[in-house]
Amino acid sequence: MSIKENYLKIREEVPGHVKIVLAAKTRTKNEVEEAVSSGAGIIGENYVQEAEKMYQALGDKSKSVKWHMIGGLQKNKINKALRIFDIVETVDSLKLADALNKRAKRAEKIVRVFIEINIGSEITKIGVKPEYDAVKKLAVNISKFWNLKLEGLMTMGPRTGNPEKIRPYFKKTKDIFDRLKNANIPNTPNTDLKYLSMGMSNSYKVAIQEGSNMIRLGTVIFGSRNSDLN
């Protein structure tokens, strides 16, 4: 099947309230352009440098979609990131939030952010500890930054060929999300928790069943890439 057929098939199967983020890492301009022409409205990039190249390559089409940072953001890349991304899904520390807020203030921008949770406590992945108190503490601190707007949580879950093995991790993330939504976070104008970004090509169906309303899809739309399961 073509990229267009893959995208339209998934868009038809997935509930309307669930947003699809194209995981565009290492994909070509033509591949991404085909998905965008098919109706895809969000491009997710893992690296600022790759995002810059794709943004430029897409020309006018780059302005017709939203851009999400779905990889770790280095502080020395923030200024460039602010010129491209609409949402940074991977805020995992107060230091990064503070640096983002300072740069956003200089740029006179409000940056929409998600907190990334390392739900599997994996040493190879970034993210806040999978504990409600740790996530809430960061959320409260982010709410004090007037140039940041906290809109969601994001997680990956352990990498496995069996999506059922990830289900407990998605359940736990959804529980943290629900508790945080009901918490009395100060500075409420800067906190509007509405997105739960979890689920990738091999796990998005389980993720949606467990409450995800934003999925990040690469392989299932673009086709395999070195047996990657993004």
Describe this structure in words.
The chain has 9 helices and 8 strands. It has 230 residues and is α/β, with parallel strands linked by helices. The protein has one domain (3-222): TIM Barrel (Alpha-Beta Barrel), CATH 3.20.20. It has an 8-stranded parallel β-sheet. The protein starts with a helix and ends in an 8-residue tail after the last helix.
Short recap of the structure:
With 230 residues, the protein is an alpha/beta fold.
Shape: globular
Mean pLDDT: 93
State the end-to-end distance: 18 Å
What is the H/E string? Answer: HEHEHEHEHEHEHEHEH
Uncertain runs are 226-230
Rg from Cα: 17 Å
| Name of the CATH architecture | Alpha-Beta Barrel
CATH homologous superfamily name?
Alanine racemase
Would you tell me which CATH topology applies?
TIM Barrel
Report the portion of residues in β strands.
15-25%
User: Strand pairing plus helix content: what structural class?
Assistant: alpha/beta
Tally of helical runs: 9
Biggest sheet character: 8 strands, parallel
Number of strands: 8
Give the % helix.
Answer: 25-40%
CATH classification, class level: Alpha Beta
